Structures are given as C-alpha cells and as structure tokens.
Amino acid sequence: MKQYNIVSKQRQKKRDSKERIVDFHPIYHNFNDKEAKEQASRCVQCPIDTFKHIMINPSYCRMGCPLNNKIPQWLKKTYEGDIEGAFTLSHEMSPFPEILGRVCPKKGLCESNCVIEKSEYSGVSIGEIETYFNEKAFEEGIIPNYGQDKIKKHKVAIVGSGPASLSCATFLLQEGIGVEIFEKEDRCGGLLTYGIPNFKLPKDAVKRRLDWMKEAGLIIHTNTEVGKDIFINELEKDFDCIFLGIGAPEGRSAMMDNEYANGVYHVMEILTKAQKRIFNHDFENSILKNKNVVVIGGGDSAMDALRTAIRVKAKSVKCIYRRDKQSMPCSEREVSNALEEGVEFIFNQAPKKVLVNEDMNVTGIKVAQTESMIEKETGKRKLIVHEEKLLDIKTDIIILALGFSNKIFDFYNDLNLKLGRYNDIVVNEKQETSHKHIYAGGDVVRGADLVVTAALDGRTAAYAIKEKLASKVLV
C-alpha cells in the first residue's frame, strides 16, 4: 500500500521573547517559499460553490470569511507558485489582504470553518499564507489596483480613516470615483495606525497602502475634525455622498470607586501614545516606564496594552480578568505571547475600587474574588462576585481595556441620523443611513467589532454609492 506523508499545520516562527520585548518590531517571521507552498498543499480544494446550497449548515473557509474571499483558489495558486495569480484573486474581495492576514483572528472565521480543522491535523494556515504571497508580490513590484488609469468622476467624502473608511475608499477608487478623507489625527489609518501595536501590524504596511492610494488620486486631510475644523454641511454641499467611518471611540468604564484618579487610563489612549512615540523615535518618555502597571480586561486590546507596557520597561505588568483563562475573549496565541514576555495574569478577580493617596494618585486597586456558576433554572452561566473576599494589589498605573462604546457626535443632529439603542448609526443592507446621501460602516454601526467586518461594510457601501452615482439619483 502506498504511504502518504501527512503535512502538519504550521504557524509562522516567532522571535525569541527575550529578543522581541526590547523593541516594537513584528514578532513573527513571514513564511518562506518552501513553508508557504507546503502549507498551501494542505488545502483539499473543497467544491464550495457546488455544495454550499444543498448542505445544511455547511462549513467551508470562504463561508467563514465575512468578505467571502476566494481562499481555495488563491491557496492553489500559491502551491503552484503563481504569486501574481494568488495576489489578484485575494484583491478581488479584500481591500488590504496582507493586513487582514496579520490581524484577522481566523478562529471562528475562515480557519475554524476549514473542513480539516476538526481533524487531528487541524486546518490550513490561511492568514499566514495570505500575508506571504501578498508580501512576495510587493517584492516583485506588483501594485494593487486603485483605478490609477481611470479619470475620477464624482466625489465622495469619507469621515475617519480606519479600516471601514480605507476599504470604502479602495473600492470607490477602483470604480473611478474621487475620494477625500477627513481625519482628526495627525496620521491616516485609524485603528490600523494607532490601535494595533507595531509588533502585530508594522506601520509601513499601512503607509504603503496609503501611498499607493494617494498616487491614484486619494486626497487626505489630516488634523481635520468634522464639526470643528470643517462642518458637515460643507461636505454635503461639496460632495455627492459621504461615508462615516468614525468608529466607537468611547472606552467603557469599570464602574469602580475613584476611577477618575490620576493614573487611570483607557487603553486606546495608551496605545495611541505608544505608537506616536515610535513615530517620533522617542522610546524613553513613556508614562509606563518603571511603573507597576495593571491592565483590566481580557480582550485583544488588553493584550496589546500589556505587551506594550513590557516593551516600554514597566517595573511589573499584571492582567486582572474577572473570569478564568478559558473564558478570555482574546486569542490563545495572544495570551501565550504575553506570558512568554513576562505578563502576570490574575484570574477570577473583579475590580472594585481604585486605591489613592491624598493627592488622588493611584496607589493600588482593590479586587473581589469571583466564581462562575451554572444557574439551575436557566442553565446559563452566571458570575458570582464574593464581596467579602477582597484583595489589594499595589500598582501605579491602571489601564481599562473593557471594550468600546459609540459616541454621539454633534453633527448627527445636523444630518438627522437615526440611531440605535447603543448610539450606533442605523443603516440598511447597503450601509445607507436615514439620510439618503450618507453611508456608514464599521464600529460606528456595529459597535466594537473586527477589522474584517469593518472592511466588509466599507466595500458594501462603496458598491452602493457607485450604484447610486451611476443612476444619478442625487436629489
């Protein structure tokens, strides 16, 4: 009987933890040619389009991807060594594949829906391969299509420059529609620039995309806040349509006593300050340096803050999470990376009070022990807080990483936008708001969500705007 060599699933190789904690460079090495071809060979090329309509609850990689990426097709091209073919296929559905290949969680999405994921061999390393062939294509001088050869007709204003906005801009430019972005920060990119640390997403990858888009005609206005530096009625007058991609910028509260003491920060403030110091080559003036740091939360943003604190030489770095390790919403890889880098985890503890001195400076945090129990009546898991089992933890800095909420911007009233119960902008299936010339997408619609779903919203809006402008229904 013929023997087959089974290729096991491999992830990208990591830099040693002692090496990587002294800088903000990416911790993973991209696949080389041999690794990528070997991992791409593991795809069994499921006949997705043939069977997806006749199966009950089918599970395929493309169906797990919000963008419906042509994953099997570009895996096959990668195995065959056709880098340009794989590159072209990946850009048909995605605005920035090499970025999503790095930051998309994969778990619960494409890789979890791979048909061999539940086997002893695990699914295909989709994200790593996606990053590989795109970076390989860039090295070979292949540039994405941004409608460079098209005369730009019509004009669309985009407020905010995060993933939803950049996705919308990408597909609009490809269709020959002019785009201007209005961004309140000093750099474009939103979450991709300031919310995801450089060790997970190198900022030259974001800048490279923006440079290509500008060469294709994109106009970017930084340090320009809508409602302050320019008014929404000006954009209504000067542009055919507007897309709002302004995120969910409000950090959630822990509802602790003394939460507004000196030394308590929301996670995005810390991550933004850290990235700005990197841009300015200032690695010495972090407010976390030589401090005892506590991060409250268990998501990816919490892991980002913890690992950032390690890199700026905090004296100690602890994570407090109210449930157990298995319940953390962040990826297992992020927890493993944080542990390797020196983070201490304290599970089953709920924050109760910020301890302060007479000047209202943080000196510690009081936490209460928690326990997860199943309610007999409902069968649902409930968190019990034992208020009598208290613990004081010494710290100088507390970072709240408890998720994000929507903010009501002043110009919403000017547009008479319909809002949901969580101050989210209500849109239809085309990402169109209650105002017929205004579209919205990403976290401002969904609440805090994934980069890939924001990219989907931007793409959907772009195609809807194109359809509207083509029909000239602008009155």
Account of the protein in words:
It is a single chain. With 475 residues, the chain is an alpha/beta fold. Helix content is 34%, strand content 17%. The protein contains 18 helices and 15 strands. A 5-stranded parallel β-sheet has the order 3-2-1-4-15, sandwiched between helices. A 5-stranded parallel β-sheet has the order 6-13-7-8-9. The chain has a 3-stranded antiparallel β-sheet with strand order 10-11-12, with no helix packed on it. It is globular. The model has no long low-confidence stretch (mean pLDDT 93).
- How do the strands of the widest beta sheet line up side by side? 3-2-1-4-15
- Low confidence ranges: none
Outline the biggest β-sheet. 5 strands, parallel
Tell me the strand percentage band: 15-25%
* Radius of gyration from CA coordinates: 23 Å
User: N- to C-terminal separation?
Assistant: 72 Å
Helix content: 25-40%
Count of helical stretches: 18
Outline type: globular
In total, how many beta strands? 15
Q: Which helices and strands, and how do they pair?
A:
Layout: H1 17-20, H2 33-40, H3 48-51, H4 61-64, H5 71-80, H6 83-93, H7 97-103, H8 126-139, E1 153-159, H9 163-174, E2 177-182, H10 191-195, H11 203-215, E3 219-221, H12 232-238, E4 241-244, E5 250-251, E6 264-266, H13 267-279, E7 292-296, H14 300-311, E8 316-320, H15 332-340, E9 344-346, E10 349-356, E11 362-374, E12 381-394, E13 397-400, E14 404-405, H16 411-415, E15 438-440, H17 443-446, H18 451-471
Parallel strand pairs: 1-2, 1-4, 2-3, 4-15, 6-13, 7-8, 7-13, 8-9
Antiparallel strand pairs: 5-14, 10-11, 11-12
Helix pairs in contact: 2-5, 2-8, 5-6, 5-8, 6-8, 7-8, 9-18, 13-14, 14-15
